[in-house]
Design goal:
This protein has 352 residues and is of the alpha/beta class. It has helices at residues 15-25, 42-53, 60-64, 81-88, 103-108, 110-130, 152-166, 191-200, 219-232, 248-256, 281-284, 326-335, and strands spanning 6-10, 34-39, 71-75, 93-96, 137-143, 175-181, 183-184, 205-207, 213-217, 238-241, 245-247, 263-265, 277-279, 287-290, 293-296, 317-318. It has twelve helices and 16 strands.
Length: 352
C-alpha cells in the first residue's frame, strides 16, 4: 500500500516513532521510496542513524550520505511552519507522532503543550493547503486523554483531532484520519518503566489511588492501530483499538511479585483521571466496529458517508470496564517481556 511512497514521521525518534519507522522499513505496508524522520533532537537522531547503519562510531559518511539513504533524518520542529513545510513538501504520507505528552509537565507549561500539540498539527495542515502539496494520507496520533479531557495534554490533543479531521474540508485530495489509544506499555514516562525503576531502587512503588485503571497496549499494538487506520479508515474517522485494561495497583503487585517491596499511595497527580475513556458516551452513537477496532465517524455532517453501519456501542468505552485479573495481567506483561528485566534484576515471580 505504501510501496514507492515518501513518508514523513514527525516525532520519529520517540518511543512510538521508532517502532513505526522500524516496521515501515521492514516493508509491512509495502516498500517505501523514502522515510524521513523529522524531529528536533539531534542526539536522538544521531543515535538512531548509527543503530540503523550498524556503525560503532560516527563518520563523515553518516552525515553526508544522509539524503541518499532510504532513511533520512531532518532536524526541525512542528512548531515552526517553514521547517514543517520543507520536510513534507515531497511527502505522500505523513504520520504526526510529535507531541508533548507528560500530563504534569503540560499542566505546569500549558502554552508549550499548545505550541506542540495544536500549533504543530495546524502547521502540517497549513503547509498542505497553502502549498497545495500532494499528500495522500495524513495520520494524527492521539490519546485516550483527548476523550472528555480534564488535563492540558488531553485538551490539546482533542483540539489536534478536530484540526486534522476538519482539514478534510480544506484539503480534499488528502485523506486525513486519526488514531486514539491508551497507555502504551514500556513507552517513556509510562507506568511500567516507572515501577521497574522503583523496584530496582528497592521501593517504595508509588500508587496514585487504588481505584485507578488504565488501558494497556504495546507499542506494536499502537502501530497495528495506525496501519489498520491507513488501510481502512475513511476520511475524518478516528480509529480506536479494542484493548484490555487493568488496575494500576494490580500492575504494581504483579511486577513486585514476591519481593518485599512497599507500595505507597501518593494521590492523583495534577491533571490525572481515575479512569480513562477511549470513546465517550456522546461519540458512541457514531462509533462502528471494524474488526479488532472501533471507528468513530466524523462529527461534521459534510464528512459523513451514507453507509448503513449501526452503532457498536451504547455507552462510553472506559478503562473501568472489563478489567483484567492479576493472572491475565501477568500473562500480558510476560508476553511483552516486561516481567524480565535483567538489568534491573527483576524476575517473573508473582505473588499468589
Amino acid at each position: 500500500m505504501l510501496t514507492g511512497k515518501t513518508i514523513v514521521v514527525t516525532g520519529g525518534t520517540g518511543s512510538l516513532g521508532k517502532v513505526l519507522v522500524r516496521r515501515l522499513l521492514a516493508g509491512e505496508m509495502g516498500q517505501p521510496k523514502k522515510i524521513i524522520v523529522f524531529s528536533r533532537d539531534e542526539a536522538k537522531q544521531h543515535a538512531m542513524r548509527l543503530s540503523y547503519q550498524r556503525l560503532k562510531a560516527a563518520t563523515d559518511e553518516v552525515i553526508y550520505r544522509n539524503f541518499q539513504n532510504l532513511l533520512e533524518f531532518r532536524i526541525g520542529d512542528v512548531r515552526d511552519f517553514h521547517s514543517v513545510a520543507g520536510a513534507i513538501k515531497g511527502a505522500d504520507v505523513v504520520f504526526n507522532a510529535a507531541a508533548l505528552k507528560q500530563v504534569p509537565a503540560c499542566e505546569y507549561f500549558p502554552y508549550q503543550a499548545v505550541q506542540t500539540n495544536i500549533v504543530g498539527p495546524k502547521n502540517i495542515v497549513r503547509a498542505i493547503e497553502e502549498h497545495k502539496l500532494p499528500v495522500e494520507i495524513l495520520v494524527g496520533v492521539s490519546t485516550d486523554k483527548a476523550c472528555k479531557p480534564v488535563n492540558v495534554m488531553g485538551m490539546t490533543k482533542a483540539i489536534q483531532e478536530r484540526i486534522f479531521l476538519r482539514a478534510n474540508l480544506d484539503c480534499p485530495n488528502t485523506r486525513i484520519i486519526c488514531v486514539r489509544y491508551g497507555n502504551v506499555l514500556a513507552s517513556r514516562g509510562s507506568v511500567v518503566p516507572l515501577f521497574h525503576e522503583q523496584i530496582r531502587q528497592g521501593g517504595p512503588v508509588t500508587i496514585t489511588t487504588p481505584e485507578m485503571t488504565r488501558f494497556l497496549l504495546s507499542l506494536e499494538d499502537a502501530v497495528n492501530t495506525i496501519f489498520a487506520a491507513v488501510k481502512h479508515a475513511k476520511r475524518g474517522e478516528t480509529y480506536i483499538p479494542r484493548v484490555p485494561s487493568a488496575r494500576v495497583v494490580d500492575i504494581a503487585d504483579v511486577l513486585i511479585g514476591n519481593r518485599r517491596i512497599e507500595t505507597k499511595i501518593v494521590g492523583i497527580r495534577p491533571g490525572e483521571k481515575v479512569h480513562e475513556i477511549l470513546v465517550s458516551e456522546e461519540e458512541a452513537s457514531r462509533t462502528v466496529e471494524r474488526g479488532n477496532y472501533y471507528a468513530i465517524k466524523p462529527i461534521l455532517p459534510e464528512l459523513k458517508d451514507d453507509s448503513a453501519e449501526g452503532p457498536a456501542l451504547t455507552t462510553e468505552y472506559s478503562s473501568a470496564d472489563n478489567v483484567m485479573s492479576k493472572v491475565e495481567l501477568h500473562a500480558l506483561l510476560k508476553k511483552y517481556n516486561l516481567l524480565v528485566e535483567s538489568e534491573f534484576g527483576l524476575g517473573e515471580e508473582m505473588a499468589a
